[in-house]
Specification:
The chain is α/β, with parallel strands linked by helices. It has eleven helices and 18 strands. The strands form two sheets. Strands 1, 11, 12, 13, 14, 15, 16, 17 and 18 form a nine-stranded mixed β-sheet that branches. A nine-stranded parallel β-sheet has the order 7-6-5-4-3-2-10-9-8. Strand 6, helix 6 and strand 7 form a beta-alpha-beta unit. Helix 4 runs parallel beside helix 5 and helix 7 runs parallel beside helix 8. The N and C termini lie far apart (53 Å). Bound molecules: pyridoxal-5'-phosphate. Pyridoxal-5'-phosphate (PLP) binds next to strand 10 and helix 9.
Length: 393
């Protein structure tokens, strides 16, 4: 990896991400080895669209939540039979275009009665049978009440919507086995009720587990124990349909690293500051203010830390909030050194406040297991989005 970073650094003057596909594939193998053999994986594209093509044959499905994500998946050639069109708002024209396209073979989730009506009417209009997964709510704005799901199931033989089972997602970074137990027992009970009251045998349960990622020093995560406990809970459920686990960060986070250059160093009122050409618009973990915790960060090519200096590492956004690491010991740093942030493969490049100050977004590189290096995006000029264009209307 050291030569790869050198190669990238020669052509890219500013911050960049690198996604390591060898590591990504190892991660998926690890998850498969530590989960029951009857589970399948659905990759939540929102976590990192850039790696989707690389894992086309490593996961059974892709969860797509917007027209943009669908366009990306189409453009990179993801087979539509692997797509689950999900998302709280399903733009009607986008859904109609998919239904009108005979070659589209994906599944649709149903998040509301209005979405149900939309899919019903489109299936009639185009004379197509559509595979659907009503989404059960977790007591949030997502999904529907049990009674709405029951209504959809009860009417299944009167229309062209082929109800495959249900989808359920209750939030991310879940570490409590008790919570998994409660959720899975609830879901199993609900599927049992659909069987008894509506003679409906669900063929699948698409379950967003929200498996956690350890982003900060001090995060308490015993992943092997969590996966073992989760597997035992699943094993203990009576009557299992096909189980598809919808995962984003747990698949993608560890393959990515974010690199940013130290561009200035100063001491203000006794505090040592290192300024970078990146910042909180490039690196944000799980929506957290970075300064509250300590991410896994190191200096490329330098190991030995200087214990008596506490650095505050800041970005380039002219905001006092743009602190990406607070009070950390580092090696003997100088301007030009590169900081490397771990676990930057999921959401980091999409959750930052990208448009403040019209600075560029980082370049994105991908390295395959055989060492092949690709640039997937050049540094992206956000000034184009903040540039007024006068058009008289
Ligand atoms: C429906 C659904 N499934 C899966 C995910 C992925 O969650 P995570 O990245 O925590 O695995 C999300 C994230 O928002 C989601 O909304």
């Amino acid at each position: 990896m050291a030569d790869i970073i050198e190669t990238i650094n020669r052509e890219c003057e500013s911050s960049f991400y690198v996604f390591d596909i060898g590591e990504l594939k190892n991660r998926i193998s690890y998850l498969r080895e530590n989960l029951p053999p009857y589970t399948e994986l659905c990759y939540a594209v929102k976590a990192n669209p850039f790696i989707s093509k690389e894992i086309e044959n490593d996961v059974e499905r892709f969860e797509i939540c917007s027209p943009g994500e669908a366009e990306i998946c189409k453009a990179i050639g993801i087979d539509s039979s692997k797509m689950v069109i999900s998302g709280i708002y399903k733009t009607p024209s986008f859904i109609e275009a998919l239904v009108a396209d005979d070659s589209f073979k994906g599944i649709f989730t149903i998040e509301s009665l209005n979405q149900y009506e939309l899919l019903l009417s489109l299936s009639e209009k185009y004379g197509r049978e559509l595979e659907v997964l009503p989404r059960l709510t977790n007591d949030s704005q997502f999904g529907m009440d049990e009674s709405d799901v029951e209504m959809i199931v009860s009417r299944r033989s009167t229309n062209r919507l082929n109800v495959m089972g249900i989808q359920y997602f209750s939030g991310t970074q879940k570490t409590s086995l008790k919570k998994y137990q409660r959720e899975l027992e609830y879901l199993s009970g609900f599927l049992g009720r659909l069987r008894e009251e509506y003679s409906f045998e669900a063929r699948e349960l698409e379950y967003g587990t929200g498996f956690p990622v350890s982003y900060f020093a001090g995060d308490k995560l015993d992943e092997p124990a969590l996966l073992k406990g989760f597997s035992e809970i699943l094993d203990g459920l009576p009557h299992k349909p096909r189980i598809i686990l919808e995962l984003g960060r747990s698949i993608a986070a560890s393959c990515g690293k974010y690199y940013t250059h130290i561009v200035d160093i100063k001491k203000n009122k006794g505090h040592s500051y290192a300024l970078t050409d990146g910042g909180m618009h490039h690196i944000v973990y799980y929506g957290q203010y970075m300064a509250m915790k300590q991410p896994f960060v190191s200096v490329v090519g330098k190991d030995e830390t200087v214990e008596n200096v506490q650095w505050t590492v800041c970005g380039s956004l002219c905001s006092m909030n743009d602190i990406i690491v607070k009070q950390i010991t580092l090696p003997d740093i100088k301007v030009g050194d590169i900081l490397r942030f771990e676990n930057a493969g999921a959401y980091c490049m999409t959750e930052g406040i990208s448009l403040l100050l019209s600075r560029d977004l980082p370049a994105i590189y991908l390295v395959r297991g055989n060492g092949e290096l690709f640039r997937l995006r050049k540094p992206f000029e956000t000034k184009l989005l903040n540039m007024p264009e006068y058009e008289k209307v």
